[in-house]
Amino acid sequence: MTTKLMGQRVQRVEDQRFLRGQGRYVDDVAVENGTLHAAVLRSPHAHARIIDIDVSALLDMDGVHAVFTYDDLADFTPEMAEPLPLLIPHPALTHGRTQYALAKDEVNYVGEAIAFVVADDRYVAEDAVGQIVVDYEVLTPVVGIPTARAARNLVHDDIPGNVAAHFEQNVGDAQAAIAGAPHRLSLDLSIERSACMPMEGRGVVARWDRDLNRLQLWASTQTATGVRAAVAVKMGLDLGQVDVITPDVGGGFGVKINHPWPEDLLVPMAAKLLGRMVKFTEDRREHFISSAHERGQDQHIEVGFDDEGRILGLDVEFWHDHGAYTPYGLIVPIITSTQLLGPYKPQNYRVVFESLYTNTVIVTPYRGAGRPQGVFAMERTMDAIAQYLGKDRTQVRAVNFIRPDEFPFDHGLIFQDGRPLIYDSGDYPQSLEKIKALIGWDDFPALQAEMAAQGRRFGIGLACYVEGTGVGPYEGGHVHIETTGKVKVATGLTTQGQGHATVFAQLVADELGVKFEDVEVVTGDTRRMPYAVGTYASRAAVMSGSAIHLAAKRAKEKALKIAADALEADPDDLQIVDGVVSVKGSPGTSIDLGTVAVLSNPLRYAFDEKSKLATQFSVGHPDRPPVPRGEEPGLEGKDFYSPDRATFASGMHAAIVETSEDTAEITIHKYAVVHDCGHLINPMIVEGQIHGGVAQGIGGALYERMAYDDAGQLLNASFMDFLIPYVSEIPDGIAVDHLETPSPLNPLGIKGAGEAGVIPGSAVLAAAIEDAEKLPVTAMPISPSDLFTLRLEHTQ
Length: 796
Description:
- The chain is an alpha+beta fold and 796 residues long.
- The mean pLDDT is 95.
- The chain folds into three domains: 31-139 and 202-249 and 256-290, Aldehyde Oxidoreductase, domain 3, CATH 3.90.1170.50; 297-471 and 644-793, Aldehyde oxidase/xanthine dehydrogenase, molybdopterin binding domain (Aldehyde Oxidoreductase, domain 4, 2-Layer Sandwich), CATH 3.30.365.10; 472-641, 2-Layer Sandwich (Aldehyde Oxidoreductase, domain 4).
- It is globular and about 95 Å long.
- The strands form seven sheets. It has a seven-stranded mixed sheet with strand order 3-5-1-12-9-10-11, with helices on both faces.
- The protein is built from 19 helices and 29 strands.
- Keywords: Molybdenum, Oxidoreductase.
- One of its GO terms (molecular function) is iron ion binding.
- This is Xanthine dehydrogenase family protein.
- Residues 20-140 form the Aldehyde oxidase/xanthine dehydrogenase a/b hammerhead domain.
């Protein structure tokens, strides 16, 4: 029998192409002769009214084909002049706002699109942008959470207090429980703004086919079908008139799930009007000032607990900075408010948040999506309880864990998908034992004392998390067995480097019994799978993996039925091994899948030797139609997977750091991860995801911050000033161990893994630095300068 591929460390099929420079990104899309290029005039002010826009200097400028401002949009379609969609409404989002494709009357952040120029090339387009004259009335901007809360100035005149949403959830009576608890603590914490920096920025290319009355669009996106739907509506087209193709994507991390961006609409609009292919590629500065940020929150925590450290009541209030608009709704703060609980079960819990407008770049999910903030709040609380009681930090966590026999565990809250927050499976005590062994927790006090004797400051930190993964509503899979015996697989979500072509091929090869190398996977092409959701929230393996598995089962059932007719056997007596259908125990009685695919079509264009069993045309049996009722010609299967609710992966990270007494530099000497994502499809790919996530978590904890001044100007909008970790800042040999508690919610028993590495980064490093310095760490990220200042504050 063929060895099962699920759980095997199969080498990624994508890598050779990328390593040889053969990747094909949006900027590599083969352009036609005469392709035009676009550039965008962006606001230099964080908050201003637009008095006038003068484009007269462009009218006779060589090489300029068109310039658009807001006033031109309604001439194309009325929908184009309306605000961009609010993608995820919520009852608590009482004052949601989205921007226009081009600013109408007012700009609300530096970088907001004002005018769109199309020219012979990008150089001419950018020169033309520089000739546009805008008369502004500059207004006082609102920058930062404290300023937004003070509400002396408003981002939007009709939104009181700059508050887009006020949201509260309660389980039990947290405040009464805290008041009656033997011990009480309060903490004030904060995490600053950061942003994801994919190697490839946003990009879009569009071509309008006048003969076919059809739009073809290439986009660097995490949701090809979402972009397709938005473009169709805004351009007044039927959905069937729009094809969106997502080629290779050089990283997404959340920023490319927002849709549509203004350029997603403006580029195809220009292509249709001008009858030419039009192209836009975001440059790096544009990504800093006009894409999306995340992370910024201020938090206040009240907790009551007993002598063992068991939480009796937890009351959390936080303020979330969502920037100038709310296209992605309240997803990030809702995730913070619910995933904050991690693997613990406080008996009484109250959470309240306000989502606030500021005159800064919009906020959409960035890998982790609200969880790093929530884990920071919970794990700093756990450490504070342990310090207060003089207990080991692992002991306090252990007494608060949900026990393995308590699953499924209902927290009594509503999760981001509007479904109950019910954990499906896990074993947190076992994860704790694994992480202690992996990091050397019990041996660390001796190491810390030894280093202290040498004048060196070492510290150890631990952080636990639970990650909701595989959120709905659905994904689909299509499996088509060709007459060559090759298998073509399609799913609608996109790929940004996760290894989908490998893991999905593993699943299909296992289910169909074909060779791994005979399976080809296509993602993110609406021509192949028009209905899909997208790649985000660690959902690809759970959603598309399950759908593809189910689709392969359908294709297999059909193949066995057709082969049974040809071999005059019972389908239950057949097996498929390496693409050949045979009778169990009698391998000589067989037929290959390619021939079965030929037989599946009554109009049997069979011209090769291996298909000799087929005639060119068959009328079938006299007592039934050539295509049985309820079936289709061809050997393929299609299915969709829609879950009852999310699955919940989990994990624990631990780190040993050293802080320099002289320079306050922070060095990570050891980093360990224990991770549970249910059954592993490909452990090597999961570990690669974890390693990449850990690197991003370290970046968020020690380096990355968006530094705005009071005028709303981003002071570090380049890689000269926005710090990211090099490989030299990432510890060698990140230790990873796996725990597999299968999910009962999907046919593969899997959970998501994409964000596991990044989620607890700030929490675990804050704990380790605090242990080394014996000073409270309440704000992240923390740089050497921050640590130096913190030392000074505690010596005065």
